[in-house]
Write a structure and sequence with these properties.
Structural class: alpha/beta
Number of domains: 2
Number of helices: 17
CATH superfamily of the largest domain: Type I PLP-dependent aspartate aminotransferase-like (Major domain)
Strand content: 5-15%
CATH class of the largest domain: Alpha Beta
Largest sheet: 7 strands, mixed
Helix content: 40-55%
CATH topology of the largest domain: Aspartate Aminotransferase, domain 2
Bound molecules: D-serine
Number of strands: 12
Radius of gyration: 22 Å
């Protein structure tokens, strides 16, 4: 492995880069929140960096979209405005397809948790009520605040809903009952490991009965939603959409927020300052403009046929993986998947006979170069740090262009690895085959 070209002046850094690269190219990413950054988005980041966009530009794009720099505290920000306007327009085109002109967009947040917090602060006063997925299910996210150590649970009065104990799917009747009882200002759905599609129209209906504002965290299924192959929260009438940009979308790490004009009007009439103000000056200083350039690139790519095909492949592979694991006796949560996530319950997969928990399983897979992650499963034993489940995602293998045969082979190797002991000679063979596959479908190099 060569020393990466960018750090020969710093051997300590170069060594870490080299070893990481080797680990990266020898294995296969199957963590549902990871992907291989698209080369076009890397080019956008680099171009922005080389063009001097790594500067402060606190503030927002001009309210009229024209009077450049009028919303900024720094000079030399006219091009920043143009860059950000381009990114916002493309985000709106993708996430609010039918009526992009009616949507407001913020592209500043460095992560989903920060974007969620900006949205909550823009919509709610401290102490106001929200209903969101309970963290103990593992379906939602820390930043949704319900039963979570996140600051969000301390700032707002949050109640969490849990999945149906039999089907492990969202229980819309239970959500409706909780909304009826708690009377929240915000009803949030979406999150990190729910393997099924969400009935956004139902969420909107439940919220509207109590004049609550709806919010969709589509950080995981944003790619298939953008491609039009999963339920579309904007079309269903959801008020606020938040997505990270680096999971199924394959963009730079960050997050974007989109909300309807009708919500902007409502917040204004209630005397609230709204989400842009909550983000800056409320929460963040300078956004990282090269990431905004990448977002512009990501949301242009998201309009292409190639993007749609990649998302279709991702969903097809997730179904294949779920079916293959089920066939081999695995406990697949909700019995399948509608998106890129395959959530499995290791503690309820009898064939492992207590030999594995989620930790030992994740490490065993890492030893052969297959990366998955530990995850909570609703109504299953385990704690947040020692959960019952192992979560897989197929978006990264889809990005690599892995074929259907290899996808099935990967499922078989996942199963076999967990059945074999770490010292079994066959483990070396599996590791070799995973390396071979990784070389046949290489991770992008960006050079
Ligand atoms: N870690 C990300 C995920 O797994 O979805 C979000 O925080």
């Amino acid at each position: 492995m060569n020393t990466p070209r960018s750090t020969p002046h710093d051997p300590a850094l170069a060594t870490i880069m080299r070893d990481r690269r080797s680990e990266h190219v020898n294995g296969v990413r199957m963590i549902a929140s990871e992907n291989y950054l698209h080369p076009k988005d890397v080019a956008a980041i680099r171009d922005a960096q080389d063009s001097g966009f790594d500067q402060y530009s606190e503030g927002h794009t001009p309210a009229d979209g024209k009077d450049l720099q009028s919303g900024r505290y720094y000079q030399q920000t006219a091009q920043v405005d143009l860059l950000e306007l381009l990114a916002k327009e493309r985000v709106a085109t993708v996430l609010a397809k039918a009526a992009p002109g009616e949507a407001h967009v913020n592209v500043h947040a460095p992560s989903g948790a920060v974007a969620n917090l900006a949205a909550f602060l823009g919509i709610m006063e401290l102490g106001e009520k929200m209903v969101s997925p309970d963290l103990k299910d593992g379906y939602g996210h820390l930043s949704h605040g319900a039963n979570s150590p996140s600051i969000v649970g301390k700032m707002f009065n949050v109640r969490g809903y849990v999945a149906d104990p039999q089907t492990l799917r969202l229980d819309y009747d239970a959500i409706a009952r909780l909304v009826e009882e708690h009377k929240p200002r915000v009803l949030l759905a979406g999150g990190s490991s729910y393997p099924r599609d969400i009935d956004w129209a139902k969420i909107v209906e439940i919220a509207r009965a109590h004049n609550a504002i709806t919010m969709a965290d589509i950080s995981h299924p944003a790619g298939p939603i953008a491609a039009g192959i999963m339920n579309d929260p904007y079309a269903a009438g959801v008020d606020v959409i938040m997505t990270t940009t680096h999971k199924t979308l394959r963009g730079a790490k960050g997050a974007v927020l989109l909300w309807r004009e009708s919500l902007a009007q409502r917040l204004k009439s209630e005397g609230r300052k709204g989400m842009d103000f909550a983000e800056f000056p409320g929460l963040l200083g300078g956004a990282y403009n090269p990431a905004i350039a990448a977002h512009a690139s990501t949301f242009l790519r998201a309009q292409s046929r190639e993007f749609r095909e990649e998302q279709e492949r991702t969903l097809r592979y997730a179904k294949m993986l779920a079916a293959e694991l089920k066939k081999r006796g695995w406990n697949v949560v909700t019995d399948g998947t509608d998106n890129h996530i395959v959530l499995t319950d290791i503690t309820k997969t009898a064939k492992f006979g207590g030999k594995h928990d989620s930790w030992s399983a994740a490490f065993a897979l890492e030893s052969v170069g297959i990366y998955a992650n530990k995850n909570a499963v609703p109504h299953s034993p385990g704690t947040a740090v020692r959960p019952a489940g192992l979560r897989f995602g197929t978006q990264a293998v889809s990005a690599l262009g892995v074929g259907e045969t290899e996808m099935r082979e990967l499922a078989g190797m996942i199963d076999e690895t967990l059945l074999l002991g770490a010292k079994d000679a066959k483990i070396g063979k599996i590791r070799g085959r995973v390396h071979e596959m990784a070389y046949a479908f290489p991770a992008p190099t960006y050079t």
